[in-house]
Amino acid sequence: MSHETRKEVIHTFQVNFFAMSRLNAFPWDSLDGEIMTTTTSDIITEILQKTCLHPICLKNPPSLKYRRRFLTELIKRHEMLAAEPLDALYEALGEVMCAQEEDMCYKTYLLPTGDAVSLAENVALISQGTTGLVTWEAALYLTEWALENTHIFKNKTVLELGSGVGLTGIVVCLSSSLTKYIFSDCHQTVLQRLKDNITNYLTNSDSSRASVCVEELDWENVSDEQLQRIQANTIIAADVVYDPDVIACLVRLLSRLLNCKVQEEHPDVYIASTVRNPQTYDCFKKELEMAGLRHVVMKDSVAQVFPYNRATTIEMIQIYV
């Protein structure tokens, strides 16, 4: 394995580890090949240093269960070698075996700039009656799209619907020259987690020139006064089309937002959705049509920044009047 390929394998391990990707997404075959070729544990030591022993992990660790499984798999690889036990590997496993699991963990997303965004997320996908305490795949896609289309946000006031734990908004604020970014959600626990995550990255960040705020936005009961006060030029959302029961009020809200002209222009609206249930997604599109809203599917490919299942059907649409 060349030096560059080796670096790439180690980096891929690091990116996947901090994002808590499924273990089968890691390049284990490449690691096995390197181990069998070199018959040393150097690469395992390097991977350990870039993951469980990295300063990011010490400050903002993935879940205990995840680290246990990862270290167990790494130990299996090391045992393929007829080498002395790697003390650091077993010490790291010993620490996580003795610790007590918590409801919250951290996922860290490494950006092309070299920056790392660590977000407090819940271990469970659904907790406290909401799915908003974790980052979903459509949000990762929307964030990748935003990184490639920073011009869309230049000098704009951006409203994000269903911000969840805040990945997309934080990255947009760090990478774009926008005027204002409005995060929004309606679940109290999500709003508090969102505020905590934002505080860590945007309040004291020199990179963030934009004004940032968090709005409690109940799609069904939002007032005209609140929408007029928001005055968004650009509206984005990810994974908000998953529950048939909320589609009608989401479309009504989008219609109201699109008719709130800012400087005599209708806002731009972009929605990224994981199509889990085609019927639900078709229902959303039909509801848009009945409300007199048109849409176009955005088919431009985006560069992969984050690790997630690329086989998942994710569609991005622009909605307009």
Mean pLDDT: 89
Helix share, percent? 40-55%
Distance between the termini: 55 Å
User: What's the main sheet like?
Assistant: 7 strands, mixed
Task: Please give the number of β-strands.
Answer: 9
Q: Regions with pLDDT < 50 over 5+ consecutive residues?
A: 125-132
Largest sheet, spatial ordering of strands = 5-4-3-6-7-9-8
Strand content: 15-25%
Task: Provide the structure class.
Answer: alpha/beta
CATH superfamily of the largest domain: Vaccinia Virus protein VP39
Q: Which fold name is given in CATH as the topology of the largest domain?
A: Rossmann fold
- Round the Cα radius of gyration to an integer and report it: 22 Å
* Count of helix runs: 12
Could you explain how this protein is built, in words?
InterPro entries: FAM86_N, Methyltransf_16, SAM-dependent_MTases_sf. Keywords: Methyltransferase, S-adenosyl-L-methionine, Transferase. The protein is 44% helix and 17% strand. It has 321 residues and is of the alpha/beta class. It folds into two domains: 3-102; 106-320, Rossmann fold. Strands 5-4-3-6-7-9-8 form a seven-stranded mixed beta sheet, with helices on both faces. Helix 7 (137-148) packs parallel to helix 8 (167-175). It is elongated and about 70 Å long.
Layout: helices, strands, pairs:
Layout: H1 3-18, H2 28-38, H3 42-50, H4 55-59, H5 64-78, H6 87-98, E1 104-110, E2 116-122, H7 137-148, E3 157-161, H8 167-175, E4 180-185, H9 188-203, E5 211-216, H10 224-230, E6 234-238, H11 244-258, E7 268-274, H12 278-290, E8 294-298, E9 314-320
Parallel strand pairs: 3-4, 3-6, 4-5, 6-7
Antiparallel strand pairs: 1-2, 7-9, 8-9
